[in-house]
Design goal:
Jelly Rolls, 2 domains, globular, 201 residues, alpha+beta
């Protein structure tokens, strides 16, 4: 009997201690206006947008709405810190960089999934790039209904703040919920009860 009660206490504690991760939408720039124009995405022009996190996240997915030149060449997605001088990414603080192959012949959501990029609360930039060792290029339609409010582009030499780039970006992440005070109280009672069972065993 005591073993059964002890097992119930252990299961009770595990239930509250191991809260499952929750998937959240971090960036979603809305829907595409098919009549809009596009911004070139090539070695002479990269496109980036600023986003903020109110708490720590593990970034799992990053996508951009891209019209690639072909379905075999590579492009790059990077995450940077925020410049304290102006509305530009601080490329000296690079949190992540990875190549990807769009893998399609038409405009669509292309990018990276299955990531595990840990970021604390703060302001960051996501950048879509065609670096010197990349082999693809294309464009990103700037016609989305809910764009990021702070944007910039790289002209091959320097970053330029330019908010009229309503390109399509989607980002997803996971965060683990912090136990509420009531949950912590239940944990305390559970530990006390488990200690009492051990003394009586």
């Amino acid at each position: 009997m005591r073993k059964s009660i002890k097992l119930l206490f252990i299961l009770f504690l595990c239930f509250f201690m191991f809260t499952p991760a929750q998937a959240d939408t971090i960036v979603d720039t809305g829907t595409l206006n098919p009549t809009g124009t596009g911004s070139a995405l090539n070695s002479g022009q990269w496109l980036a947008g600023q986003f903020s996190l109110s708490q720590a996240y593990d970034i799992t997915d990053i996508y951009g709405w891209i019209y690639p030149h072909d379905n075999t060449g590579t492009m790059t997605i990077a995450l940077y810190g925020d410049s304290t001088i102006d509305d530009n990414p601080d490329t000296s603080i690079q949190y992540f960089s990875q190549k990807f192959i769009p893998g399609g012949s038409g405009a669509d959501w292309y990018g990276l999934t299955g990531l595990n990029i840990s970021l604390t609360a703060g302001t960051y930039w996501v950048s879509f790039e065609v670096r010197n060792d990349d082999t693809n290029y294309g464009s990103m339609p700037k016609a989305f209904s809910d764009p990021l409010s702070v944007m910039a582009y790289f002209n091959g030499t320097t970053w330029v703040g330019y908010d009229d780039i309503p390109i399509g970006i989607r980002m997803y992440g996971q965060t683990t919920s912090v136990p509420e005070p009531a949950t912590i109280l239940f944990l305390g009672f559970g530990l006390i009860g488990l200690a009492g069972l051990r003394r009586n065993a």
